[in-house]
Design brief:
Layout (H helix, E strand, L loop, with lengths): L6 H20 L7 H17 L8 H13 L79 H16 L4 H5 L15 H23 L6 H26 L1 H10 L17 H9 L11 H7 L1 H9 L15 H7 L15 H13 L14 H8 L4 H12 L25 E2 L2 E2 L15 H4 L11 H4 L29 H4 L10 H4 L7 H5 L18
Antiparallel strand pairs: 1-2
Length: 540
């Protein structure tokens, strides 16, 4: 009968065999045991990582297990004979969150956009019939940080999380808010677009934050894939907007409307990526800044690092280093190139609407159309493959039929977010329409004199918003975010004209009627109109 092994006999046998292996390596002058030496060296590197936290238990059992595997000795079969608990490095620990409980309540968010209870206050509360909403755990900013990052960098990220935690929320929901924000479109009139917008933000706003911070990570490949998926989803959403409103109509809503930053303009190429190098080549006459690792910025440019950290919780500035405008985004990402793969450009119908607008009228603002004599603009306007789609879209517009098709499932209760991230309350969207400006935005006299019909995609009521001078702004939403350091917003019309929280990147042009004077060309942005054909329409 074989005597069962005990921990003491296992440890004794492991020690004896370990000494034999060490003697074998020490006497190996001909490098006969090179494989064994490499295996031992590998485990030597792993051991201090596992032992980084004093709370870890049973690491000796792992040593014995590795020895038994390396020895291949019948006297010491590879068995783990006790429980092993490995605790992460203290610097990598993630702060816990209070779990939901039917008795001990936990407020998930300071934002209260819910309707009041329909039951009378004097009625005794019965047991909850609905399943309690669970607080979604957001990944910590400290998660997946490499071990070599500085203590200051970790401290700064932790302070961001602490500031958000004091408000009962998390960093990503402060940086990319939803409820109460103003969209560039009427969220009630365009419910399909609003739902697509909601799903884009809720699914990918953690990636938005990763791109805004661009902190070093041990999972660079995973982040790269997530960023690509987010960019593809943004192309799809941009396509729906262009299909729905037309190219000029969409830009007029985005750049000349009073709204908050609900369009993600971040996600520029990393500094040493192939995309950044290609952008430098394609825009050799412009300065095309690329994104740089935030830990590197801390070492090379501390003042810039301070600015980046300081604006993360400010939704009006979090993507300040992103694309300056929709035209810049489309050009630098080659979204206007019809030869690109479908998922890396605008949809075929959106491209057709761009061509119809550009060939039908000169742009109301010169920077809305780039150089039509080269690059993607030239490819787009000269593409013969688009002609069938252009004819189809033109016929749809003439028949007053929709160009944009939303093949999406209806909103499900399972998609509900926290109180500050709900899609709708009482059947109405939680984001608001844009605030009407008091200043009018008139088309250029040259564009207004064109006799060819221009499909702006806007209804008569929406098109007249630019000329409205007596519309009152919406009521100011409740906002428990402290004023000053984190986020300041105002719905006052006079302040909105200069408020950076609106997505008006070309604010200097908003209050003036554009003209054909040379000064307009200088203020229109870098490189968008250099060498542009003044009459880009194709000859029939």
């Amino acid at each position: 009968m074989t005597k069962p092994r005990t921990r003491s006999t296992t440890a004794s046998a492991a020690t004896t065999i370990a000494k034999e292996l060490r003697a074998r390596l020490d006497a190996d002058t001909d490098n006969e045991h090179a494989t064994l030496r490499a295996q031992v060296a590998l485990w030597d590197r792993i051991r201090p990582i596992l032992a980084a936290n004093d709370a870890s238990v049973g690491l000796e059992a792992l040593d014995a297990l590795v020895v038994s595997v390396l020895a291949e000795d019948d006297e010491l079969p590879p068995l783990l004979d006790r429980t092993v608990v490995v605790v992460p490095h203290p610097d990598a620990s993630v702060r816990g969150e209070v779990p939901a409980h039917p008795l001990f309540s936990f407020v998930a968010s300071p934002y209260h956009g819910k309707r009041p209870s329909a039951h009378s206050g004097c009625k005794a509360a019965g047991p909850a019939k609905k399943k309690q909403r669970q607080l979604r755990r957001a990944p910590s900013l400290l998660q997946n940080l490499p071990a070599h990052v500085s203590a200051k960098f970790r401290t700064d990220l932790d302070q961001l999380e602490q500031a958000a935690a004091e408000l009962g929320t998390v960093v990503v929901r402060l940086a990319y808010r939803w409820c109460g924000q103003r969209a560039w479109y009427d969220s009630v009139a365009y419910r399909d677009l609003c739902l697509a917008h909601y799903r884009l933000v809720m699914q990918f706003r953690s990636v938005f934050l990763d791109c805004a911070l661009y902190a070093p990570t041990t999972k660079a490949n995973e982040r790269r894939k997530q960023k690509l998926n987010t960019i593809v989803a943004r192309f799809q959403f941009l396509s729906r907007n262009v299909e729905l409103f037309g190219y000029y109509g969409f830009l007029r809503l985005i750049e000349k409307g009073a709204h908050d930053n609900l369009m993600w303009l971040g996600g520029k190429a990393a500094k040493h990526s192939a995309s950044a190098k290609a952008a430098k080549v394609d825009h050799d006459d412009e300065d095309v800044p690329a994104q740089e690792d935030l830990a590197t910025v801390l070492c090379t440019n501390p003042s810039r690092y301070k600015v980046i950290i300081g604006r993360i919780l400010d939704p009006s500035r979090v993507d300040e280093d992103g694309y300056a405008s929709i035209p810049e985004l489309l050009e630098q990402t080659h979204a206007l190139d019809p030869a690109r793969p479908e998922h890396l450009r605008l949809s075929i119908r959106a491209l057709a609407r761009v061509v119809l607008d550009v060939q039908g009228n000169d742009p109301p603002y010169p920077n809305w159309v780039g150089n039509t004599n080269r690059g993607d603009w030239k490819k787009l306007l000269a593409s013969e493959d688009l002609q069938a789609t252009i004819d189809e879209v033109e016929q749809l517009l003439a028949n007053d039929e929709p160009v944009a098709v939303f093949n999406q499932k209806p909103f499900q209760d399972t998609e509900k977010g926290e109180d500050d991230s709900d899609y709708e309350v009482d059947g109405l969207p939680t984001i608001r329409p844009p605030t009407s400006r008091k200043t009018s935005v008139s088309p250029t006299p040259k564009a207004a004199s064109k006799k060819k019909r221009v499909h702006t995609g806007l209804s008569e009521s929406e098109a007249s918003e630019d000329e409205s001078s007596d519309a009152e702004p919406d009521d100011k939403p409740s906002d428990k975010t402290p004023k000053g350091s984190l986020y300041e917003s105002s719905d006052d019309d006079e302040e909105e004209e200069a408020d950076p929280s609106t997505n008006d990147k070309a604010g200097k042009e908003a209050a003036a009627t554009p003209s054909s004077s040379p000064s307009d060309d200088k203020s229109s942005g870098k490189g968008h109109d250099k060498g542009r054909d003044k009459n880009p329409r194709k000859t029939p």
